[in-house]
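Example (one chain per record):
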Amino acid sequence: MAQMGWVFLDDRGGRHRVGLYHGDQSGHVMIHCNLRVVQIDFSVKESKTYSFFIEDELCEVHIYKEPDGRFGYEFVVNKTVDTPRNRIRRVDERRIRRQMVVFIAGFVAVIIAGVLGFQWLDRWNKTERLTKSSLFSNLSEENVRRLSLEGKTDTAHLFTVREAMQRKVFYGFTTAGSLQISGAFTVPDTGQILLPNGFPLTDRDAFLVTYLPSDPQIHRLDFNQPTHSTIETYVRMASAAERRAHPDISDKRSICHALSAAELKGWQSLADFIFQTKSVEENDRHNRDSYLRLVRDVDYARVVEEECWDK
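Predicted structure:
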């Protein structure tokens, strides 16, 4: 006699034990649920299906006759036939599908917005970095891209003038086609003029300029790429500031201090010498604190001891 058993869990968490007996010789079938007989049939020699309810679920036990004459058995819950429970289930499934569609659409929208936002933020950050270190003529994302792909370079010289009671900084450069290109930007009427690279402006300071050969009025003046002569000016300013702050050292030693910093930390560190007497409130980039961090650096102190001891 074939004997099978299943455990069915309803939606409320209830456990229901379903069992089947199928006689080998007689073919008689008995199906029970929770020790209660729900179906009896006689002389079942072929495939057959039996239906019964457990609570409000329509359940089925399938008997399959295999090609070799043996029988297989399966317990299923019929979720497609029209029953009150299945009607409720279909309503719930439609509601869940709608909710899933809304959720997925919202999730996709958030992802797309995030990607677009990060792309915009990346472009904005790049533009912000460029504008902080450069002077652009006709700034746009397309012009930035074209300058990086097609741009030619030259040297632009800066000088200050006063027009109608206002100070301006003018610059000019010559293209490969011998065109004279110039531009200007306004600065405070009084006081020291600080460039975006953090250094004070002196007349004839020179920096790399990149321009479009087809339209040189589209160009970028890069204050982070000074010429060699401009860096020499920064060295002289740094050594002079070092000499004023430490009158007991020689001119040669003050120059050695500045050159050692430039070689070890880069020419930008020269601004720490120039503004070494300024407070953080007066100059938040280069000041007394940044100068002290520089000169107390172990590597810098070693280089100064090795290179400047006899100056």
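Caption: The chain has a mean pLDDT of 89.
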